[in-house]
Amino acid sequence: MTRDYDGTEYPDAEPAGSFAGIPDGFGRLWTPHRIAYIEQGGGSPGDDCVFCTAPTLSDEDALIVHRGEKAYALLNLFPYNSGHLLVVPYRHIATYDEADAAEVSEIGEITQTAMRVIRRTSRADGFNIGMNQGAIAGAGIAGHLHQHVVPRWATDANFFPIIARTKALPKLLGEVRQELAEAWPAR
């Protein structure tokens, strides 16, 4: 067991050989702290979906960087790296195949602009871009489609830190939101 700074205990990685079935050679890292994030959203539009609620708040309160007609971009509240954005359609849909042509187009345009803005403001060396669709595929908020835009640098500390369960983020979310919003091109 690993003990957190507050005394909470978490299981260590388990070797695959101890699982039922055919061993696959992988260890398992249990991250029970993520359940709070997973349980925040994912239901129907009336169920306080964080992505349906965000556009009703101020840009600063919701960490929104850009508002388009069909979709918007906001900072991830639990970023993998500084500048980790989410591109989200306003409409409450769960998967990419439910998006209409205008939503798909604007999600793509916002993603491209986000890459350019992040590259210009923080000199990112690369990006991880992706959508986890459905709880089984790892979507923390499965009920509302969102695309991750994660900036990467040759010198970053890894995508998912395992040692000490700590991620170094050099800027506060509010500072990053303001920097990206100010650099976003006007329409």
UniProtKB/TrEMBL annotation:
Keywords: Nucleotide-binding
One Pfam family matching this protein: HIT
Database matches in PROSITE patterns: HIT_2
Residue stretches making up the HIT domain: 50-159
InterPro entries per the UniProt record, alphabetical: AP-4-A_phosphorylase (IPR052908), FHIT (IPR039383), HIT-like (IPR011146), HIT-like_sf (IPR036265)
Motif (Histidine triad motif): 144-148
UniProt keyword Amino-acid biosynthesis, yes or no: no
Domain of life of the source: Bacteria
Protein name in UniProt: HIT domain-containing protein
